[in-house]
Structures are given as structure tokens and as C-alpha cells.
Amino acid sequence: MDQLIQHLVNTLILGGTYALLGIGLTLIFGIMNVVNFTHGALYTVGAYLTYLAVAALGLDLFLALPVAILGGLLLGALIEIVLLRPLRGQDIDTTMLVMIGAGIVLQSGTLWIFGGVAKAVPSPFPEAPLQIGPASVSWLRLFVLGAALLLIGLTYALINRTKLGLAMRATFQDADTAALMGVNVRVIYTATFAMGSALAAAAGALLGPVYVVHPQMGGPAELKAFAIVILGGLGNVTGAAIGGFILALAEELGAGYISSGYRDAMGFLIIIAVLLYRPTGLFAKAERVG
Amino acid sequence: MPGRFTLTTAILLALAAATGARADTVRIGVNEPLTGAFAASGTYVVNGAKIAADEINARGGLLGKTLELVIEDNKSNPTEAAAVAEKLITSDKTPVMMGAWGSSLTLAVMPKLMDYEVPMLVETSSSGKITTSGNPYVFRISPPSALEAETFAPMVSKLGMKKVDFLVLNNDFGRGAATDFGKMLKEKGVQVGLTETMDQGAQDMSAQLAKLKGSDSDTIMITSAVDQLVLLFKQMAALGLKKRVITTGGSQNPDQIIAQAGSAAEGTMHLTTFLPWLPEKTPDPKATETFIAEWKKRGFQFAGVTESFRGYDGIRAIAHAIEKAGKAEPAAIAKAFWSVDFTGLNGPIRFAKSGPAGKESGQSKPDVYLIEIKDGRVVLPTL
Amino acid sequence: MSRLLHALPPLALLAALAALPLALGSNPYLLNALIVTGILTIGAMSLNLLLGYTGQLSLGHIAFFGIGAYVSALTSLGFDVELGFGLRAVHEPWPAAVGFVLAVVAAGACGYLIGRLSFRVRGAYFVLVTISFAEVVRLVALNWVELTQGPLALTNIPAITLGLPGLGTWTLRTKLQNYYLVLAVGTLCWFVVARLVGARFGRAMRGLKENESLALSVGINATRTLTVAAVVSAAMAGAAGSLYAHYLRIIDPEVFAFTTTVGMVIMVVAGGKGTLMGPVVGGLIFGLLPVALRPVMAPEAQWIVYGLVLIVILFVMPRGIVPGLAGLVRRRPARAVPVLEASPEAPR
């Protein structure tokens, strides 16, 4: 029983970061119809920016976080303007392949610059965990959960409460009509991609101090993000948020009670099962077809 | 027409690369992971190897020629490691090699040694299979996990271990350690509980740790490399998991653990094969100090020496073999390995026969030390 | 006359490839690179059937390659596996050639199953389902240690032995023998693809790629067409995987690496998807590029070059090198080569 409680607490902590990983990816797909294969690389870049801010600039973690998010925002905007804007109107396969190429360049670039030795980002929180009944949880991870939920909330508010969000939603519905209504679709695309990238970088920045910062950290994170996004339905932000928690639960229980070796398989098995029964994800809106 | 140009260039360049093997050098192939999961460790080993090569060249080289290391990256991938061995042997014509860090990598290379009859010095791998499968071209200076377990056996009762769980990498390195230590512990009357595994790239082990937290064992033995150990110690602290921890495998790099895991590493114990913190207690204090001084002079982190000394000793052992052979030819070097005898940084290096008769592999028996992290420093535990 | 003309470039290429070892002499390193390149090129040819002719971007293609490799290796090595409920599966080693056949069959069967499952979805969903499938297969290979040895790799896989009644047998141990084996299998695969896309079936595939609803309205059975393409494609990938296993004589779960799929996709896209020559040209270039780059730059820099080349090709020659060059050489008879030129005008 105690073990189950610990697994559930872990689920909550892990799920928050998974949700953060998922929404950036799903946002870009929903609005731009682009599968962002640079998501994992941007996650890695976010983590390295935090490391640089803490190690080289001497900032503390709370200040390093906005630095990483800003970096992700700028890098995302750059990728969109240089690579995606000229390809607008090309089929989704072409943009996917270009994104794969960009992902390879970014990932190998971080390895080239920083080398293969993992870096640690010091945590400002006490080492001793918080005890909740039989379960324990570290203060750092509680902070990460809080920050992730805050970022998810901000993304929501931005989409649903602001003019930019309105324009994004209009573009999501129908880009041509939105353009006719005076929405500058090009700006919306850049803003969307930048935002999605910033969220990926934020996830990396938050998890960097929890794990270690490593050039290969993006690969598994990206695959998880894909699983989460399919679970929730491509393009569905709420779905991705819930999908993050479902994946975390499946992994925790799978590793705890089935076999730790198959922990990472859980996400993919879920994807296959979901697509067998509900090909457009668990929370897909009726009008979205793949 | 970029396509046609590239193809022509590719073939030309490859041809140029393939006609290497200059006559005025003695070449040693180095097959290490420089990218991928083990990139950090492989790089340390290569840097240690370079120190040994420079030292030998400063003393006039080998057989009157310059010693040249041909360093290739096996990308932490077994198939790639086999391909690299093939390249080193057939294209670079290296008569002897050092490699390939991990057990899975080394096992992948071994059939190539048989095919081409070229010897290899194994500097890091710990799987028992490497020296028991009947490959007469393998000479190992790192301890297999059975040897490590054997050296650790006398300490078991002093530590008061009653029941042990294992958390190991899901590969030959990890599973091999769990099997060998498990066997030794059972013989000592210690109970063996859970054996949990983790993938080498895994970052979040909280699920496995939650399971271990719930078990009634008093000790967790962990086999993995340093990056994952740092994560494990942090996550154990976060879960409030307070059992005795002993790590095995010789790739722990305690200084990096102290620097990166901080107080989460307090009280953890590690079986290592080198004592750079206490050079006066090593078998050859002077050599240890020289090596560490040179390592620091080159601007490498002190933390790396627990890996890099193996690269250093490995190249030195190969150089001894080449000198004894009197010529840089595979068969002569393979034969000369049996007469290598000198004091390495972690004990005498001389090869004992291991494996099926007639095609034995060579296994050297290095010292194994149990160290503890206390107040952010490495100490020898009082037993 | 025009038929002969179009048969000329492939025949010339085949002749050149057959003569290449003579020109190289006995350079085992280059021969090794050519063999591995050839095997990956067969993989790329099989991927082209899906990606180029039906327009389905399968990023899990490596799964079939890996399944072929493991089936073939395990057939020839034998295994003894506990299945649970007291059941054991014991298999004595069979000849490697049988492994090759079983690899083709098994991969084809997996292609059928996965095809039925994943062709229910299109576009991004299809891509992500195929990636997931490959990951699951990789994790099974990694974790079912009793069968696959997990990360310890299956080693000492025997080389393929060919036998003809009355003529004796020979085991393909040397590089030269393996080179011609790969060339022979590759040529065979070429003919299979050429037959397939040249026939009525090929038009059905291209019809689906260009305009699925139109194709459906003229009576093309989408699921059946795609499934047949998937089975043939997977079987060919399985054959390539089997060659890989028996040539390298070691396989580990890394054969399922996503980057290998990316490599094959690059070969197809750069060479020219939907053309017969495309994957071969792309395969040769991108298979040998690492060999050329290895001595001049660090591994991570090589990957940066790879990524950049992929991006540049997609921008500069979106249809690939072969159609691009063909367009340069002769602009006129573009319509007269339905087999070489899939769909010049992209839909949408």
C-alpha cells in the first residue's frame, strides 16, 4: 500500500512535466500542421541554457528559467522563419523531414559544443524530502510540478483570453478565412512555433536540475512527447495535459508491478491500443480528422 | 550536380584514408565510445591512453619507432564496435588494439579478433563471459564481476549485511554483476531479494526505487556508470530511501558523484579499482602521482582519473607486450602478452590463463578497494 | 527503342557495381562499406515502395529490417525459451538460408498486421504509429533477454550457406561473396518493385497517392492496395535485415535505432522518391558519405553535415537527385516514363 502511494505521488510529479512536454508539441501541430521533430532538441537546449545561466552567469535557478524560456522562444522563431516559412503549402511529409534534419543538427550541435560529459545543475532546495504520510517527495520536484502547472495555465490563458490567442484559434479553424479577416497568419505561425519551442525549452530547463543535462536527453523525451500527444489527440491542448498524467501513471504502475524493463514501452503500447480503438486520440474533437 | 560530386569525392577520400599504415610508426588501435551513452567514460580512457603514448614517445618510442594511437569512436553501440574493430584491423593495419569499454561492446568485437587473429587488451569491461568463452586474443586488466565479488567477500560480514537487493543496468555489465555478487552473497549466507533493472539511457528511476524502498532489505547493490548513479542518489534522497548503498563495476567516478549529487551521495560505498585520493596507498605511489600530475597539467578534471588510469595502464601493458615481442605483428604480440609483468597503477599486471584449455584468454588481477563518501570526501571505511 | 533507352541506366549501373570490386582490388574496408551500403539501399528501396509510390511516410520501417535480422539470426542460432505456463519453445539451429526465407516471411506477415492497423489513419498519425511500433519492437528485443540476449547482442551468427543439388554447397564467408550476394538480392528486389509499379497495381498506388478520394471513386480498393504494398515492402526490408545479420554476424537491439530509419528516408528522399533509381543513387551517396567524412571530421560533426544535407536537398531538389538530373538532361520525354516518374505534380 505504501508503495502504491509512493507510485501515485511519483505519477503526479512526473505527469506535470510530461504534460508540459506534450502541450508544446500539440500546439504546433494543431495550428501549423507540422510535426515538430526538433522538440526533443529544444528540450535539450533549454536544459543547457539553464546550465549555462547557472554555471557561467552565476544566476540562480529562478532567474535561469526565464533565460532558457526566452532562448527557446528565439530559437523557435528562428527555425520557423528560416525553415518552415519558405515551405508553407508543402505537404506535411516535407516539413516533417526538414524538422528531422533540423533536430539532428541541433542535437549533434549540443554534443559538439558541450561534449558528452553530463552536467549537473545545482538545486537551491534542501536535499531532505517532504514527507506526506508514507510517501516522500523532493522540494525541487514539487517546485517543478508547480512551475509546470503554472506554465500550462499561462498557455491556456494566452490561447483563450488574449487577442493573440483568438487569432491563433481562428488560424486553427481555417487559416484562409483568418487571413481574410485581417489576421496576419505568418506572424501567428511564427508566434505559435516560438511558443511551442519555449514550452519544450521550459520543460528541459525544469528537468535539467532534476536529472542531469546531457546531449542525448532529448531523444527519449521527444518519443514520450509523441506518445502523450497521440493519447490526447493531435492538436488538442487539454488532451495533451491529461495524456501526460496518464502516461506517467502507466509508466509508474508498469515499472512497479509488471517489469521495470518495459517501463518505456508503456507509452507506445498505449498509443497502439488507443489508435486501434480511437484512432484520433482519447480526447479528439469530432471535427478533427488525421 | 551535388550528387555526382559527392559520390566521387566519397570514393576518393575513402581511398586516401585507406592507404594509411606508415612504416615509421607502431600503431595501436583504440576502440572506445566517444559519443552516445558512454561518451564521457570513453573519452577519459582515451585521454589516459594519450598520456601513456606521449610518455612512451618521450622516452624514445617503441622498437625505435614512434607509437601512434589510432582512435576510433564506437558510438556506445555493439554493432558499431565490431565495425570499428574491422576498420582498425583491415584498413589501419593495427597489430593490436585496446577496447572497447563496455562488456556488450567488447563481446561484439571478440569474434573479429578470432577472424583476423589480432589481440586486444580489454581495459574496462567486467562481464565474466569475456575471458571464459575461449578467445585466446583477449587480455583483460579490469576485474570481471566474479573477481570483484571474490575480493569483496571478506567485507560482507564486517558490514553486517543481511539481505541485499540489486539495481543494475539491463545489460551484460549489470546483469553479470547481479549474478556474480548474488552467488557470492548466498554463499556467505546473505539473502538476495529483488533484482531490478534499468536501461542505460534511463533518467527517471523513481518507479524502481519506490519498489526497492518497499522491500525489507538492508543494502542495495547498484551497478551502473557515474551519470546514472548521480541521478539514482538524487532520486533516492528525494524518495527518502535510506539503505546502505554499495556500487560496483569500477565506473563510478566518486568525485563526479560528490560534485553532482552533493549530500545525496553521503554515506554511499563504492568498489573501485584505483585509489587516486590516497596515492600513498596505491601499489606504485610514484607512478600514480606522476600520472595524476600530468592529468591535471593537461587541464582534465581530477574526477576523470578513475576511468583514465585504465587507458593509461592499458597502453603501457600493450607497449610492454610489443617490446617483448620485438616486432609489431599480431601473432608475436599475442604471444608476448603472456610474459608481460609490471606494476600498474592498481596492482601487478600479469595475465593468468582463464577459460577453456588450449584457447585461454588472459586475465590480470587488479586490486579492488571499498571506499566511502563521507563529508563530501572519499575515505576508506572503518570496518 | 525507348524501352531499351530507359533500361540502359540501370543496366549500366548494375554492370558498374558488378565490376567495382575488381577496380577496388582487395580493400576489405571499402568492400565492407559497400556491402553495408548495399544492404541499407535494399532497405531504402523497400521504403520507397511505401513512401515514394503510395505516399505513406513510414518512420518505423526499421522494425521490419530488425525483425528480419532477428528472425534469421535466431533461426540459424537456435533458442530455448520459457513461454510461461510450463511451456518451452526449443528450436535447434537451422541453415542460415532457411533463416533468410523465414525472415522474409515473418517480416512480410508483420507488414500485413501493421498495415491493417496503421492504414486506418493517415498523415501525422500514420507516422507516429509507425514510430511507436518500431520502438515497441526495439524494447521487446531489448528486454526479452532469454530469446534475444537483450543488449548483450546475438553473436556468432553463422554466415549464409548456399547449396545447389549436385553442385555442392558454399558458405559465404568472404566479403567478396557477400558483396555479390547483396548485389543479387538487390537486383531481385529491383525487379520486384519494377514489376509491381509498372503494372495496374502501380497505377492504383499512385492514384491513391495523388488523390485518394478520386482513386476510391474509380474503384481502387485503398486498404487492399496499401496492404499489399506494405507486405511487399516489409518482406524486402526483412530480406535486407537477414543479409545484415548474416554478414555482420552480430546484432543488438540498436538495429532498431530511429536514426537508421532516418538514414533510409534520407536515401529515398535525396535520391528521388517514387523512382526506381532514386533509392539506389541516394543509398550509394548516403551510405558512402560517412566513410568519406570519417577521416576528416568528428562523429558529431558528421551528423551535423547529414542533417544539413537533408535540409538542403529538400529545399533545392525537393523531388530528389534522380528526377532533378533527369529533368536537366532531357526535359522533353518526362511523360513517356511512367515507371521512372511517379507523380510530377504534387496534390494540394
UniProtKB/TrEMBL annotation, chain A:
TM helices/strands, residue ranges: 12-34, 41-59, 65-84, 96-118, 138-159, 187-213, 225-250, 262-280
Subcellular location: Cell membrane
Keywords for the protein's UniProt record, in alphabetical order: Amino-acid transport, Cell membrane, Membrane, Transmembrane, Transmembrane helix, Transport
Keyword flag Cytoplasm: no
KW Transport (keyword) present: yes
Organism superkingdom: Bacteria
Signal peptide: none
Membrane protein topology class: Multi-pass membrane protein
GO MF annotation list: transmembrane transporter activity
GO terms under biological process: amino acid transport
GO cellular component terms, semicolon-separated: plasma membrane
Assigned protein family: Belongs to the binding-protein-dependent transport system permease family. LivHM subfamily.
Name of the protein in question: Branched-chain amino acid ABC transporter permease
Provenance organism: Methylobacterium terricola
Automatic annotation (TrEMBL), chain B:
GO biological process: amino acid transport
Organism domain of life: Bacteria
Residue ranges of every copy of the Leucine-binding protein domain listed in the record: 25-375
Family the UniProt entry places it in: Belongs to the leucine-binding protein family.
CDD domains, sorted: PBP1_ABC_ligand_binding-like
UniProt keywords, alphabetically: Amino-acid transport, Signal, Transport
Family matches, as Gene3D superfamilies: 3.40.50.2300
Signal peptide: 1-23
Record's keyword annotation contains Transport: yes
SUPFAM superfamilies: Periplasmic binding protein-like I
Protein name: Amino acid ABC transporter substrate-binding protein
One Pfam family per UniProt: Peripla_BP_6
Automatic annotation (TrEMBL), chain C:
GO molecular function, one term: branched-chain amino acid transmembrane transporter activity
Cellular component, GO, one term: plasma membrane
Transmembrane segments: 29-51, 58-79, 94-114, 126-145, 179-197, 218-243, 255-272, 303-322
Pfam family name, one: BPD_transp_2
Keyword Transmembrane helix tagged: yes
Keywords, sorted A to Z: Cell membrane, Membrane, Transmembrane, Transmembrane helix
Classification via CDD domains: TM_PBP1_LivM_like
InterPro entries: ABC_transp_permease, LivM-like
Subcellular location: Cell membrane
Protein name (record): Branched-chain amino acid ABC transporter permease
Gene source species: Methylobacterium terricola
